[in-house]
Amino acid sequence: MSTYKLPLATNFTTKIDNKNTHLITLKNRTGMQIALTDYGARLVSVLVPNNRGELIDVVLGYDSINGYIEAQEQYQGATVGRFCNRIAAGKFTLAGENYELAQNNNGNSLHGGIEGFHRKIWDRQVSFNKQVDFYYVSPDGEEGFPGELNTTVSYELTNNNEIIIRFRARTTKTTVINLTNHAYFNLEGEGHGDSLGHEICIHSDEYLPINEKQIPTGEIAPVAGTVFDFRTPKMLGLDIGAAEEQLIFASGYDHTFVNNQPISQAIASAYSKTSGIELEVYTSEPGIHLYSGNFMADDKGKSGNKYLRYGGFCFEAQHYPDSPNQPHFPSVILQPGEEFNSEIRFKFNLKKEA
Ligand code: BGC
């Protein structure tokens, strides 16, 4: 499949909420290309070379802004916030105040609410054809969260075939924050069947078990002897159908792993023997959430092929789900005067078979 191209910029040029939207493309010196849109500060395309010297698009998405707006929301490539992942019953208490959020997922709050950061038109600035900074000011009380949140998400494409995503935020009131990128990867090329044959490696000894509503139970459990042990590379699909309560609760993998690695060492990787492409993930975040695309709708992606269940997987670097209600988890509290800072690196390598 050497036919992968970036979507047409004109398909992303429109006006939403009185703001212009765009497709922004970056290219590095080795030929890797990425496309981003200010609609949800999303990563739209990632073209990297495979073992046949062809550029293939390894990120799922749509070829027009209408695709993103009209498809059932899967948070494709999106910046997810203010609070990615789940908050139990959409409720939490902070500095003596009770807060209530929309229950948009099985009685819980998911991914920042109904009109979360993934649906906002971000302001943008492009620097030297290698970095795009997106800005969004979320008003005090938006989607029920306290404090005006001034947020920047920067995407940098390096000549080392890395996408570095940097998040920064400041608040006017004590608040909670958890930001991630929700790209779905398929290293055989988007729209190219399921991703169950990818070899996944997660350098984590512990994961967070969930209850039947997909909220962490609070326990931090060893992966040893469980289907969550990815410390030596294992096919994503190997155990996914196991009769294991944790997988049944989530219809597959949808779990957070503890990250004790420094940012200089990859916490996770995925590899496709078919394309020879390896993805490594580096992050400053204390958790990495593996989501195996369990709830993908049958919608058509960029290449015109349908995205089936498990058609892509996400490595969402983030703080732990439901942290506002679980004080023993790493803190997600941001105070006025502090700056929230976090980083995710997606690095693409071409591996030659021995
Ligand atoms: C969540 C899944 C959810 C998906 C939506 C993931 O981050 O963990 O449970 O269905 O996002 O796209």
Features:
binds beta-D-glucopyranose; Beta-galactosidase, Chain A, domain 5; 354 residues; 36% strand; mainly beta; globular; 4-stranded antiparallel beta sheet
Mean pLDDT: 96
User: What is the helix/strand order?
Assistant: EEEEEEHEEEEEEEEEEEEEEEHEEEEEEE
- State the CATH topology: Beta-galactosidase, Chain A, domain 5
Q: Would you tell me the structural class of the helices and strands?
A: mainly beta
Report on the structure:
By secondary structure, the protein is mostly beta strands. It has a single domain (9-350), classed as Distorted Sandwich (Beta-galactosidase, Chain A, domain 5). It is built from 2 helices and 28 strands. The protein has helices at residues 65-70, 245-250, and strands at residues 14-16, 19-21, 23-27, 33-37, 42-49, 55-57, 79-80, 86-87, 91-94, 97-100, 109-110, 123-127, 131-138, 149-157, 162-171, 175-176, 180-181, 199-202, 206-207, 221-222, 234-235, 254-258, 268-271, 277-283, 287-291, 314-318, 333-334, 340-350. The longest helix is centred in the first third of the chain and has 6 residues, at 65-70. The protein is globular, with a radius of gyration of 19 Å. The mean pLDDT is 96. It binds beta-D-glucopyranose. Residues 74-75, 85, 254, 291, 295, 316 line the site of beta-D-glucopyranose (BGC).
